[in-house]
Amino acid sequence: MPCLVALLAVAFPRIAIVLLYLFTNFFAGVYHTLLIPILGFIFLPLTLIVYTYLLNTHTPIATTQFVILFVAVILDLGLLGPSIRSRFD
Fold first, then answer.
1. Which residues contact residue 52 at a Cβ distance below 8 angstroms, ignoring those fewer than 6 apart?
2. Which has the least CB within 10 A, 10, 17, 44, 50?
3. How many angstroms separate the CA atoms of 46 and 49, rounded?
4. DSSP secondary-structure letter at 52?
């Protein structure tokens, strides 16, 4: 059961990106090449979603938006690295 929860946590942002790309215009006009969205899909999917949302709102970036983007980066990097428990076992 914990493996299923971990798999869903890792796969959910990627599934959301695919669904947003196929059924909405969420990514339209934000990126000029496909390199950034593909790299974001592979390495930092939650950050890609948050950054695209912040660009789509067309509001000046304030401290709150930087904090939200920073939290998204930390969550993505936390999913990439091994846990502290596995380093000491």
1. 26, 27, 30
2. 10
3. 5
4. H
pTM (two decimals) = 0.82
In the predicted structure, residue 63 carries a pLDDT above the cut 80: yes
Contact 41, 48 (CB under 8 A): yes
Residue 86 three-state SS: helix
Domain extent listing, the chain: 2-88
Name which of 14, 49, 43 is nearest 30 in CA terms.
49
Tokens of 62: 């304030």
Q: Model confidence at 84, in pLDDT bands (50, 70, 90)?
A: low
- 2-15: pLDDT as tens digits: 788 878 878 899 99
Distance between CA atoms of 89 and 86, rounded to whole angstroms? 5
What mean pLDDT is reported for the chain? 86
